[in-house]
Amino acid sequence: MSAGDGEQGADQGRALWHGRFEGGPAAELMAYTESLSFDRRLWPDDIAGSVAHVHGLAHSQIISEVERDSVLAALQTVHDEMSRGAFQFLAGDEDIHTAIERRVTELAGPAGAKLHTGRSRNDQSATDVRLWMKRELVAVAVRIVDLQDVLLQRAVEAGPVYLPGYTHLQRAQPVLLAHHLLAHGWALARDVERILDALDRVDVSPLGAGALAGSSLPLDPDYTADRLGFAARFENSLDAVGSRDHVAEALFALAVVGINLSRIGEEFVLWTSEEFGFAKLDDGYATGSSMLPQKKNPDIAELARGKAGRLIGDLTGFLATMKGLPLSYNRDYQEDKEPLFDAVDQISLALGAMRGMIATVSWVPNRMQAAADSETGSATDLAEWLVQRGTPFRDAHAVVGALVRRHLAGEGSLAALVSADPALGPDAAALVAPGVAVQRRTTAGGAGPAAVAVQLERFRHKVAQLRAAVTADLR
Ligand code: ARG
Fold first, then answer.
1. Contact 323, 263 (CB under 8 A)
2. Which residues, in sequence order, are CB contacts of 21 under 8 Å at separation 6+?
3. What are residue 204's DSSP bridge partners?
4. Which of 197, 349, 416, 440, CA to CA, is 20 to 30 A from 408?
5. Helix 121-158 to helix 245-271 angle, to the nearest 10 degrees?
6. Candidates 83, 273, 289, 413; catalytic one
7. Cβ of 122 less than 6 Å from ligand 1
8. Across all residues in the chain, what is the average pLDDT?
Protein backbone atom coordinates (compact mmCIF):
# COMPACT_ATOMS: atom_id res chain seq x y z
CA MET A 1 0.00 0.00 0.00
CA SER A 2 1.31 3.41 -0.86
CA ALA A 3 0.14 6.00 1.57
CA GLY A 4 1.71 8.74 -0.47
CA ASP A 5 -1.42 8.93 -2.53
CA GLY A 6 -3.78 8.11 0.33
CA GLU A 7 -5.67 10.64 2.40
CA GLN A 8 -3.01 10.68 5.08
CA GLY A 9 -0.33 11.64 2.59
CA ALA A 10 -2.50 14.40 1.14
CA ASP A 11 -3.15 16.43 4.27
CA GLN A 12 0.19 15.69 5.83
CA GLY A 13 2.25 17.63 3.42
CA ARG A 14 5.85 16.56 3.16
CA ALA A 15 7.64 14.44 5.70
CA LEU A 16 10.92 15.78 7.07
CA TRP A 17 12.75 13.29 4.92
CA HIS A 18 10.72 13.92 1.73
CA GLY A 19 13.79 14.42 -0.45
CA ARG A 20 14.97 10.85 0.00
CA PHE A 21 11.56 9.21 -0.32
CA GLU A 22 9.29 8.91 -3.28
CA GLY A 23 6.22 7.95 -1.30
CA GLY A 24 4.75 9.58 1.79
CA PRO A 25 4.38 7.89 5.16
CA ALA A 26 1.67 5.26 5.58
CA ALA A 27 -1.17 6.06 7.93
CA GLU A 28 -0.28 3.06 10.08
CA LEU A 29 3.31 4.20 10.33
CA MET A 30 2.25 7.63 11.47
CA ALA A 31 -0.26 6.24 13.95
CA TYR A 32 2.30 3.89 15.44
CA THR A 33 5.37 6.09 15.49
CA GLU A 34 3.97 9.52 16.31
CA SER A 35 4.87 11.00 19.65
CA LEU A 36 3.02 14.30 19.41
CA SER A 37 0.18 12.92 21.51
CA PHE A 38 2.52 12.82 24.51
CA ASP A 39 5.54 14.99 23.70
CA ARG A 40 3.54 18.15 23.00
CA ARG A 41 4.03 19.14 26.60
CA LEU A 42 7.70 19.67 25.77
CA TRP A 43 6.82 22.74 23.72
CA PRO A 44 8.36 25.34 26.06
CA ASP A 45 11.57 23.35 26.14
CA ASP A 46 11.57 22.74 22.40
CA ILE A 47 11.23 26.47 21.82
CA ALA A 48 13.95 27.23 24.37
CA GLY A 49 16.24 24.73 22.64
CA SER A 50 15.51 26.24 19.23
CA VAL A 51 16.12 29.77 20.49
CA ALA A 52 19.54 28.72 21.79
CA HIS A 53 20.29 26.83 18.59
CA VAL A 54 19.39 29.80 16.40
CA HIS A 55 21.56 32.08 18.50
CA GLY A 56 24.31 29.50 18.13
CA LEU A 57 23.92 29.43 14.34
CA ALA A 58 24.23 33.22 14.19
CA HIS A 59 27.07 33.22 16.73
CA SER A 60 28.97 30.85 14.43
CA GLN A 61 27.95 32.95 11.41
CA ILE A 62 26.12 30.07 9.79
CA ILE A 63 23.04 32.27 9.46
CA SER A 64 22.86 36.05 9.30
CA GLU A 65 21.59 38.25 12.10
CA VAL A 66 18.58 39.12 9.99
CA GLU A 67 17.78 35.45 9.55
CA ARG A 68 18.30 34.85 13.25
CA ASP A 69 15.90 37.63 14.16
CA SER A 70 13.27 36.43 11.77
CA VAL A 71 13.43 32.88 13.18
CA LEU A 72 13.41 34.22 16.73
CA ALA A 73 10.31 36.28 15.95
CA ALA A 74 8.63 33.17 14.51
CA LEU A 75 9.56 31.18 17.61
CA GLN A 76 8.07 33.94 19.75
CA THR A 77 4.85 33.72 17.75
CA VAL A 78 4.78 29.95 18.23
CA HIS A 79 5.31 30.54 21.94
CA ASP A 80 2.35 32.92 22.04
CA GLU A 81 0.16 30.53 20.06
CA MET A 82 1.07 27.63 22.33
CA SER A 83 0.46 29.67 25.48
CA ARG A 84 -2.96 30.73 24.25
CA GLY A 85 -3.83 27.21 23.10
CA ALA A 86 -4.20 28.65 19.59
CA PHE A 87 -1.46 26.61 17.93
CA GLN A 88 -2.88 24.55 15.09
CA PHE A 89 -1.42 21.07 14.98
CA LEU A 90 -1.69 19.32 11.63
CA ALA A 91 -2.16 15.64 10.89
CA GLY A 92 1.37 15.44 9.53
CA ASP A 93 2.97 16.74 12.73
CA GLU A 94 4.76 13.66 13.94
CA ASP A 95 6.13 15.10 17.13
CA ILE A 96 6.46 18.44 18.88
CA HIS A 97 9.76 19.13 17.13
CA THR A 98 8.24 18.63 13.68
CA ALA A 99 5.19 20.70 14.55
CA ILE A 100 7.16 23.70 15.79
CA GLU A 101 9.65 23.62 12.93
CA ARG A 102 6.80 23.39 10.45
CA ARG A 103 5.11 26.44 11.94
CA VAL A 104 8.37 28.42 12.15
CA THR A 105 8.95 27.74 8.47
CA GLU A 106 5.42 28.89 7.64
CA LEU A 107 6.01 32.09 9.59
CA ALA A 108 9.63 32.88 8.72
CA GLY A 109 9.84 31.44 5.21
CA PRO A 110 13.33 30.65 3.89
CA ALA A 111 15.00 31.71 7.15
CA GLY A 112 12.76 29.25 8.98
CA ALA A 113 14.03 26.48 6.77
CA LYS A 114 17.47 27.10 8.27
CA LEU A 115 16.38 26.43 11.85
CA HIS A 116 17.29 22.77 11.75
CA THR A 117 20.80 23.41 10.34
CA GLY A 118 23.37 21.26 12.13
CA ARG A 119 20.75 19.76 14.37
CA SER A 120 18.93 16.45 14.48
CA ARG A 121 15.80 15.52 16.32
CA ASN A 122 18.10 13.20 18.20
CA ASP A 123 20.00 15.95 19.98
CA GLN A 124 16.91 18.15 19.93
CA SER A 125 14.61 15.72 21.74
CA ALA A 126 17.36 14.72 24.17
CA THR A 127 17.85 18.42 24.97
CA ASP A 128 14.13 19.04 25.41
CA VAL A 129 13.69 16.17 27.84
CA ARG A 130 16.68 17.25 29.91
CA LEU A 131 15.35 20.81 30.11
CA TRP A 132 11.94 19.47 31.10
CA MET A 133 13.46 17.21 33.75
CA LYS A 134 15.47 20.03 35.27
CA ARG A 135 12.31 22.05 35.83
CA GLU A 136 9.90 19.29 36.76
CA LEU A 137 12.16 17.27 39.03
CA VAL A 138 12.93 20.38 41.04
CA ALA A 139 9.17 21.01 41.27
CA VAL A 140 8.72 17.47 42.62
CA ALA A 141 11.50 18.08 45.14
CA VAL A 142 9.75 21.26 46.28
CA ARG A 143 6.54 19.27 46.82
CA ILE A 144 8.41 16.71 48.88
CA VAL A 145 9.81 19.49 51.06
CA ASP A 146 6.26 20.85 51.42
CA LEU A 147 5.18 17.44 52.72
CA GLN A 148 8.15 17.39 55.09
CA ASP A 149 7.01 20.74 56.45
CA VAL A 150 3.63 19.24 57.27
CA LEU A 151 5.25 16.25 58.98
CA LEU A 152 7.40 18.62 60.99
CA GLN A 153 4.43 20.71 62.02
CA ARG A 154 2.38 17.67 62.97
CA ALA A 155 5.33 16.26 64.90
CA VAL A 156 5.72 19.49 66.87
CA GLU A 157 1.99 19.56 67.64
CA ALA A 158 2.00 15.92 68.69
CA GLY A 159 3.98 16.86 71.81
CA PRO A 160 3.98 14.03 74.36
CA VAL A 161 1.52 11.76 72.51
CA TYR A 162 2.88 8.25 72.11
CA LEU A 163 1.80 5.07 70.40
CA PRO A 164 3.13 1.55 70.05
CA GLY A 165 6.18 1.21 67.88
CA TYR A 166 5.99 -1.98 65.86
CA THR A 167 8.25 -4.62 64.49
CA HIS A 168 6.67 -7.39 62.43
CA LEU A 169 3.53 -5.29 62.93
CA GLN A 170 3.54 -6.59 66.51
CA ARG A 171 3.62 -4.07 69.33
CA ALA A 172 7.23 -3.69 70.38
CA GLN A 173 8.04 -0.56 72.39
CA PRO A 174 6.19 2.73 72.78
CA VAL A 175 7.45 5.66 70.71
CA LEU A 176 6.43 9.29 70.52
CA LEU A 177 4.05 10.04 67.66
CA ALA A 178 6.49 12.80 66.67
CA HIS A 179 9.23 10.19 66.37
CA HIS A 180 7.09 8.05 64.10
CA LEU A 181 6.14 10.98 61.86
CA LEU A 182 9.75 12.14 61.60
CA ALA A 183 10.86 8.66 60.54
CA HIS A 184 8.91 9.25 57.34
CA GLY A 185 10.29 12.79 57.19
CA TRP A 186 13.89 11.57 57.14
CA ALA A 187 13.14 9.05 54.38
CA LEU A 188 11.67 11.90 52.34
CA ALA A 189 14.84 13.94 52.98
CA ARG A 190 16.84 11.22 51.27
CA ASP A 191 14.33 11.28 48.42
CA VAL A 192 14.97 14.99 47.90
CA GLU A 193 18.72 14.43 48.02
CA ARG A 194 18.44 11.57 45.54
CA ILE A 195 16.53 13.77 43.11
CA LEU A 196 19.00 16.64 43.45
CA ASP A 197 21.86 14.24 42.94
CA ALA A 198 20.25 12.74 39.83
CA LEU A 199 19.80 16.28 38.52
CA ASP A 200 23.57 16.72 38.39
CA ARG A 201 23.67 14.10 35.66
CA VAL A 202 20.60 15.50 33.93
CA ASP A 203 22.20 18.92 33.76
CA VAL A 204 24.30 18.26 30.63
CA SER A 205 23.48 19.67 27.21
CA PRO A 206 23.34 17.23 24.28
CA LEU A 207 22.73 20.06 21.81
CA GLY A 208 25.31 20.07 19.04
CA ALA A 209 25.74 16.31 19.02
CA GLY A 210 23.60 16.29 15.88
CA ALA A 211 22.27 12.92 14.81
CA LEU A 212 25.19 11.13 16.46
CA ALA A 213 28.58 12.52 15.46
CA GLY A 214 28.63 16.30 15.68
CA SER A 215 28.78 18.54 12.64
CA SER A 216 30.94 19.76 9.80
CA LEU A 217 29.55 23.23 10.50
CA PRO A 218 31.34 25.42 13.05
CA LEU A 219 28.74 24.91 15.81
CA ASP A 220 29.70 25.68 19.39
CA PRO A 221 28.04 23.22 21.82
CA ASP A 222 29.54 25.11 24.79
CA TYR A 223 27.86 28.29 23.65
CA THR A 224 24.40 26.70 23.40
CA ALA A 225 24.86 24.74 26.63
CA ASP A 226 25.64 27.98 28.37
CA ARG A 227 22.72 29.83 26.82
CA LEU A 228 20.36 27.08 27.95
CA GLY A 229 21.70 27.22 31.48
CA PHE A 230 23.16 23.73 31.44
CA ALA A 231 26.08 23.11 33.78
CA ALA A 232 28.06 21.47 30.98
CA ARG A 233 27.93 20.21 27.41
CA PHE A 234 28.23 16.56 26.39
CA GLU A 235 31.69 15.04 26.20
CA ASN A 236 30.85 12.51 23.50
CA SER A 237 28.24 12.95 20.80
CA LEU A 238 27.34 9.24 20.61
CA ASP A 239 26.75 9.22 24.35
CA ALA A 240 24.82 12.52 24.18
CA VAL A 241 22.12 11.14 21.89
CA GLY A 242 22.54 7.48 22.79
CA SER A 243 22.14 7.44 26.55
CA ARG A 244 19.11 7.59 28.80
CA ASP A 245 20.52 6.43 32.12
CA HIS A 246 19.65 9.86 33.55
CA VAL A 247 16.00 9.10 32.79
CA ALA A 248 16.26 5.68 34.41
CA GLU A 249 17.88 7.27 37.43
CA ALA A 250 15.10 9.83 37.77
CA LEU A 251 12.52 7.05 37.41
CA PHE A 252 14.27 5.17 40.20
CA ALA A 253 14.30 8.24 42.45
CA LEU A 254 10.59 8.76 41.74
CA ALA A 255 9.78 5.09 42.30
CA VAL A 256 11.44 5.29 45.72
CA VAL A 257 9.35 8.36 46.55
CA GLY A 258 6.32 6.35 45.49
CA ILE A 259 7.34 3.46 47.68
CA ASN A 260 7.90 5.75 50.65
CA LEU A 261 4.48 7.32 50.13
CA SER A 262 2.94 3.86 49.82
CA ARG A 263 4.32 2.98 53.25
CA ILE A 264 2.83 6.10 54.82
CA GLY A 265 -0.35 5.25 52.97
CA GLU A 266 -0.47 1.74 54.37
CA GLU A 267 -0.05 3.07 57.91
CA PHE A 268 -2.91 5.48 57.40
CA VAL A 269 -5.07 2.63 56.15
CA LEU A 270 -4.26 0.75 59.35
CA TRP A 271 -4.47 3.71 61.70
CA THR A 272 -7.86 4.85 60.41
CA SER A 273 -9.36 1.35 60.62
CA GLU A 274 -11.76 0.68 63.45
CA GLU A 275 -9.36 -1.98 64.68
CA PHE A 276 -6.57 0.53 65.28
CA GLY A 277 -8.63 3.71 65.61
CA PHE A 278 -5.49 5.84 65.95
CA ALA A 279 -6.56 8.54 63.49
CA LYS A 280 -9.61 10.08 61.86
CA LEU A 281 -9.44 11.51 58.37
CA ASP A 282 -10.81 14.93 57.61
CA ASP A 283 -13.96 14.76 55.47
CA GLY A 284 -12.18 16.55 52.64
CA TYR A 285 -9.56 13.84 52.43
CA ALA A 286 -11.75 10.77 52.82
CA THR A 287 -14.37 9.18 50.63
CA GLY A 288 -17.72 7.59 51.43
CA SER A 289 -19.27 4.40 50.19
CA SER A 290 -22.02 4.40 47.58
CA MET A 291 -23.79 1.65 49.50
CA LEU A 292 -22.58 1.56 53.11
CA PRO A 293 -23.65 4.75 54.87
CA GLN A 294 -21.29 4.30 57.81
CA LYS A 295 -18.13 4.10 55.70
CA LYS A 296 -15.31 6.62 55.59
CA ASN A 297 -12.58 5.34 53.36
CA PRO A 298 -8.88 6.27 53.11
CA ASP A 299 -8.74 6.29 49.30
CA ILE A 300 -5.78 8.68 49.07
CA ALA A 301 -3.71 6.43 51.30
CA GLU A 302 -4.79 3.35 49.34
CA LEU A 303 -3.90 4.93 46.01
CA ALA A 304 -0.53 6.06 47.35
CA ARG A 305 -0.04 2.38 48.09
CA GLY A 306 -1.49 1.15 44.80
CA LYS A 307 0.18 3.60 42.48
CA ALA A 308 3.61 2.66 43.78
CA GLY A 309 3.18 -0.42 41.59
CA ARG A 310 2.74 1.80 38.58
CA LEU A 311 5.84 3.83 39.43
CA ILE A 312 7.87 0.67 39.73
CA GLY A 313 6.44 -0.31 36.36
CA ASP A 314 7.53 3.00 34.84
CA LEU A 315 11.07 2.27 35.98
CA THR A 316 11.30 -1.40 35.14
CA GLY A 317 9.54 -0.98 31.81
CA PHE A 318 12.00 1.68 30.78
CA LEU A 319 15.01 -0.30 31.99
CA ALA A 320 13.83 -3.13 29.77
CA THR A 321 13.52 -0.72 26.85
CA MET A 322 17.12 0.43 27.27
CA LYS A 323 18.62 -2.98 27.69
CA GLY A 324 20.82 -4.14 24.81
CA LEU A 325 20.37 -1.03 22.67
CA PRO A 326 23.40 -0.38 20.49
CA LEU A 327 24.83 3.10 20.18
CA SER A 328 23.69 5.62 19.44
CA TYR A 329 20.11 6.89 19.03
CA ASN A 330 17.43 4.29 18.53
CA ARG A 331 13.77 5.06 18.10
CA ASP A 332 13.20 2.95 21.19
CA TYR A 333 14.33 5.99 23.15
CA GLN A 334 11.11 7.75 22.28
CA GLU A 335 9.70 5.42 24.93
CA ASP A 336 11.48 7.44 27.62
CA LYS A 337 8.83 10.12 27.73
CA GLU A 338 5.60 8.41 28.73
CA PRO A 339 6.99 6.66 31.83
CA LEU A 340 8.86 9.81 32.81
CA PHE A 341 5.81 12.05 32.43
CA ASP A 342 3.60 9.49 34.14
CA ALA A 343 5.95 9.13 37.09
CA VAL A 344 6.31 12.89 37.58
CA ASP A 345 2.55 13.47 37.22
CA GLN A 346 1.62 10.69 39.59
CA ILE A 347 4.15 11.64 42.24
CA SER A 348 3.11 15.29 42.08
CA LEU A 349 -0.54 14.36 42.58
CA ALA A 350 0.31 11.92 45.35
CA LEU A 351 2.45 14.46 47.20
CA GLY A 352 -0.30 17.08 47.12
CA ALA A 353 -2.99 14.66 48.27
CA MET A 354 -0.89 13.07 50.99
CA ARG A 355 0.17 16.46 52.23
CA GLY A 356 -3.45 17.57 52.60
CA MET A 357 -4.47 14.29 54.20
CA ILE A 358 -1.68 14.42 56.77
CA ALA A 359 -2.16 18.13 57.48
CA THR A 360 -5.82 17.60 58.34
CA VAL A 361 -5.94 14.18 59.99
CA SER A 362 -6.88 14.15 63.65
CA TRP A 363 -5.11 11.80 66.00
CA VAL A 364 -6.85 9.81 68.69
CA PRO A 365 -4.21 9.92 71.44
CA ASN A 366 -6.15 7.85 73.94
CA ARG A 367 -6.43 4.96 71.47
CA MET A 368 -2.74 5.22 70.59
CA GLN A 369 -1.66 5.42 74.20
CA ALA A 370 -3.99 2.68 75.39
CA ALA A 371 -2.46 0.39 72.77
CA ALA A 372 1.04 1.41 73.82
CA ASP A 373 0.32 1.00 77.51
CA SER A 374 -0.11 -2.74 77.40
CA GLU A 375 2.12 -3.85 80.26
CA THR A 376 4.29 -6.03 78.04
CA GLY A 377 5.53 -2.92 76.23
CA SER A 378 7.81 -2.36 79.23
CA ALA A 379 9.39 -5.82 79.12
CA THR A 380 12.66 -4.57 77.65
CA ASP A 381 12.86 -1.83 80.26
CA LEU A 382 12.47 -4.43 83.01
CA ALA A 383 15.30 -6.46 81.53
CA GLU A 384 17.46 -3.33 81.22
CA TRP A 385 16.63 -2.44 84.84
CA LEU A 386 18.13 -5.79 85.84
CA VAL A 387 21.13 -5.17 83.58
CA GLN A 388 21.81 -1.90 85.36
CA ARG A 389 21.95 -3.89 88.58
CA GLY A 390 24.50 -6.33 87.23
CA THR A 391 22.45 -9.13 85.68
CA PRO A 392 23.78 -10.28 82.29
CA PHE A 393 21.27 -9.33 79.60
CA ARG A 394 20.53 -12.91 78.51
CA ASP A 395 19.61 -13.86 82.08
CA ALA A 396 17.55 -10.70 82.52
CA HIS A 397 15.73 -11.48 79.27
CA ALA A 398 14.87 -14.96 80.61
CA VAL A 399 13.64 -13.63 83.97
CA VAL A 400 11.33 -11.07 82.38
CA GLY A 401 10.27 -13.47 79.64
CA ALA A 402 9.12 -15.94 82.27
CA LEU A 403 7.08 -13.25 84.03
CA VAL A 404 5.48 -12.20 80.74
CA ARG A 405 4.60 -15.84 80.06
CA ARG A 406 2.93 -16.13 83.48
CA HIS A 407 1.12 -12.82 82.96
CA LEU A 408 -0.21 -13.98 79.60
CA ALA A 409 -1.24 -17.29 81.18
CA GLY A 410 -3.51 -15.34 83.53
CA GLU A 411 -1.46 -15.49 86.70
CA GLY A 412 -1.84 -11.77 87.32
CA SER A 413 -0.90 -8.33 86.07
CA LEU A 414 2.70 -7.96 85.00
CA ALA A 415 3.11 -5.19 87.57
CA ALA A 416 1.97 -7.52 90.36
CA LEU A 417 4.23 -10.35 89.19
CA VAL A 418 7.20 -7.97 88.90
CA SER A 419 6.48 -6.54 92.31
CA ALA A 420 6.44 -10.01 93.84
CA ASP A 421 9.59 -11.16 92.04
CA PRO A 422 12.66 -11.22 94.35
CA ALA A 423 15.01 -10.00 91.59
CA LEU A 424 12.72 -7.14 90.56
CA GLY A 425 10.27 -5.88 93.20
CA PRO A 426 8.13 -2.72 93.55
CA ASP A 427 10.75 -0.26 92.16
CA ALA A 428 10.92 -2.21 88.94
CA ALA A 429 7.12 -2.56 88.87
CA ALA A 430 6.88 1.22 88.54
CA LEU A 431 8.33 0.84 85.05
CA VAL A 432 5.19 -0.99 83.93
CA ALA A 433 2.95 2.00 84.67
CA PRO A 434 1.33 3.74 81.67
CA GLY A 435 3.47 6.29 79.89
CA VAL A 436 6.71 5.36 81.64
CA ALA A 437 8.38 3.28 78.96
CA VAL A 438 8.46 6.00 76.33
CA GLN A 439 10.22 8.36 78.77
CA ARG A 440 13.04 5.87 79.03
CA ARG A 441 14.05 5.95 75.36
CA THR A 442 16.78 8.45 76.07
CA THR A 443 19.61 7.66 73.63
CA ALA A 444 20.40 9.95 70.72
CA GLY A 445 18.00 9.39 67.83
CA GLY A 446 15.74 7.40 70.13
CA ALA A 447 11.98 7.59 70.63
CA GLY A 448 11.72 9.41 73.98
CA PRO A 449 10.94 13.10 74.61
CA ALA A 450 14.46 14.44 75.19
CA ALA A 451 15.95 12.69 72.17
CA VAL A 452 12.98 13.65 70.01
CA ALA A 453 13.28 17.30 71.04
CA VAL A 454 16.83 17.28 69.69
CA GLN A 455 15.73 15.39 66.60
CA LEU A 456 12.95 17.89 65.90
CA GLU A 457 15.50 20.70 65.79
CA ARG A 458 17.79 18.69 63.55
CA PHE A 459 14.91 17.86 61.25
CA ARG A 460 13.80 21.50 61.16
CA HIS A 461 17.33 22.41 60.14
CA LYS A 462 17.40 19.65 57.50
CA VAL A 463 14.14 20.80 55.95
CA ALA A 464 15.34 24.41 55.86
CA GLN A 465 18.54 23.22 54.18
CA LEU A 466 16.62 21.18 51.60
CA ARG A 467 14.20 24.07 51.03
CA ALA A 468 17.17 26.34 50.31
CA ALA A 469 18.74 23.71 48.05
CA VAL A 470 15.62 23.14 45.96
CA THR A 471 14.96 26.85 45.73
CA ALA A 472 18.51 27.59 44.64
CA ASP A 473 18.19 24.66 42.28
CA LEU A 474 15.56 26.28 40.12
CA ARG A 475 17.96 25.40 37.36
N1 ARG B 1 10.08 11.83 18.58
C2 ARG B 1 11.40 11.32 18.50
C3 ARG B 1 11.92 10.94 19.91
O4 ARG B 1 11.30 11.31 20.84
C5 ARG B 1 12.29 12.31 17.91
C6 ARG B 1 13.55 11.76 17.39
C7 ARG B 1 13.33 11.10 16.09
N8 ARG B 1 14.57 10.82 15.49
C9 ARG B 1 14.71 10.00 14.46
N10 ARG B 1 15.89 9.78 14.02
N11 ARG B 1 13.67 9.40 13.94
O12 ARG B 1 12.91 10.27 20.08
1. no
2. 15
3. 232
4. 440
5. 30
6. 289
7. yes
8. 94
- CA-CA-CA-CA dihedral for 99, 105, 107, 112, to nearest 10: 130
Q: Give the atom of ligand 1 at the shortest distance from the alpha carbon of 331.
A: 12
Distance from Cα 33 to the centre of ligand 1, integer Å? 9
98 CA distance to ligand 1 middle (Å) = 10
Give the per-residue pLDDT at 246. Answer: 98
Question: What topology does CATH give the domain 18-117?
Answer: Fumarase C; Chain B, domain 1 (1.10.275)
**Residue 459 Cβ contacting ligand 1 at under 6 Å:** no
Residues 35-73 as b or e (16 or more Cβ within 10 Å = b): bbebbbebbebbbbbbbbbbbbbbbbebbeeebbebbbe
Residue 10, pLDDT above cutoff 60: no
Give 253-289 pLDDT, tens digit per residue.
999 999 999 999 999 999 999 999 999 999 999 998 8
CATH class of 374-433: mainly alpha
Catalytic residue among 168, 216, 290, 362: 168
Give the Cα separation of 391 and 448 in Å (integer). 24
Q: Is 289 a catalytic residue?
A: yes
The closest residue, in CA terms, to atom 7 on ligand 1 is 121
Q: What is the CATH number of domain 137-160+167-224+231-370?
A: 1.20.200.10
For a ligand 1 pocket test, name from 334, 335, 337, 338 the mutation site with the most ligand atoms within 8 angstroms of its C-beta.
334
Nearest CA to ligand 1 atom 11: 331
Q: Is 23 helix (H, G, I), strand (E, B) or coil?
A: coil
Q: Is there an atom of ligand 1 within 6 Å of 132 CB?
A: no
Separation between Cα atoms, residue 27 and residue 154, nearest integer Å: 56
Region for residue 412 given its phi and psi (left: phi exceeds 0; alpha: psi -120 to 50; beta: otherwise) = left
> pLDDT for 58-116, tens place per residue?
999 999 999 999 999 999 999 999 999 999 999 999 999 999 999 999 999 999 999 99
Burial class (CB in 10 A: 0-12, 13-18, 19+), 291: exposed
CB 72 within 8 A of CB 51: yes
Distance of CA 398 to the CA centre of its chain: 46
Q: How far is the CA of 141 from the centre of ligand 1 (A)?
A: 29
The answer on pLDDT for 474 being more than 70 is no
Going from N- to C-terminal start, the domains of the chain cover 18-117, 137-160+167-224+231-370, 374-433
Mutate to test the pocket of ligand 1, among 46, 100, 122 (most ligand atoms within 8 A of CB): 122
